[in-house]
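Weekly modeling sync, notes
Attendees: S.R. (lead), two postdocs, one rotation student

Agenda item 3: backlog of single-chain predictions. S.R. asked that every request posted to the team notebook include the full sequence so nobody has to chase files. The rotation student volunteered to paste the first one in as an example of the format we agreed on. Action items at the bottom.

Example entry:
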Amino acid sequence: MLQRFIVQCLKVLCWFIGHIPLGFALWSGRVLGRLGFYLDKKHSMITINNLAASFKDEKTSNHINSIAKKVFENLGMNLMEFFRLPWLKKEDLTGYVETEGFGNFERACNKGKGVIFLTGHFGNWELMAMFYALKGYPVDIVVRDLDSPIVDEFVRWVRAMAGNRIISKGRSMRELIRTLSRGGIAGVLLDQNVTWSEGVFVYFFDRLACTNKGTALLAAASGAAVVPTFIVRHENRHKVIIGEEIVIKTTANRAADQLENTALFTKVIEDFIRQYPDQWFWLHQRWKSRPENDPNKGTEKAAMIQSK
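Predicted structure, as returned to the notebook:
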């Protein structure tokens, strides 16, 4: 009963914040993000260290600090826009969210085997999911259950308002195969660290990163088209950029295919981040899992490693 009451209070708060004029909401988000950068020392240092290790001699320390601040500002704006999502209508997208490469998505859909969206925590990824639903293409989104049941229920309510379906990570494979077999769409964010048992080690910004092999497994099992899609923020507007279908490798060696396709997917994400480094979620400890810590190292169950 108490949980339900708190969730309802959050929805009321969401309504009030969601109806603040967009310009003021985004300005407030930038301020919140900048405050977060200075107050949350732990995550600001993770962000700076990740950027410094990823770009090495490519960017100066001043440039790294500038990007890190913009990362936090983008997240602050994302937060303010998140409260607007339940009230967003299709007509609101005009002048707010534009697209590039929508024909790539349509061609993939027309194959009739479903579409797997390859994406990451980039730009305002929550808005991108809402965009597709409002356009008439609801997505099955794989998420990790949040630690707080109250927050989890509220966030799921927001995400599903336009028709998207939220699927918990632990039971996603069977559900997604069923969706794809009906010609539906699955959304997978493939830019987070996983444990050695869930993934394979592939290079991401010249460092081995344990990456979920589920997308490669899903693509091979379903025959669905894998289409990269990202959303880029331009001031108060956004652009959804849809790339060409990724041709995956399918041979008799399934393990090798998983590794190679996961490496390919990761390279697509990295290339996009390099274009817009201030819009990726650098706060995450992407390289936390290490191959040398794999307890099954040297056995047939060892996590595979992608060599350069």
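Discussion: group reviewed the output briefly. The chain has a mean pLDDT of 92.
Action items: rotation student to repeat for the remaining queue; S.R. to check formatting next week.
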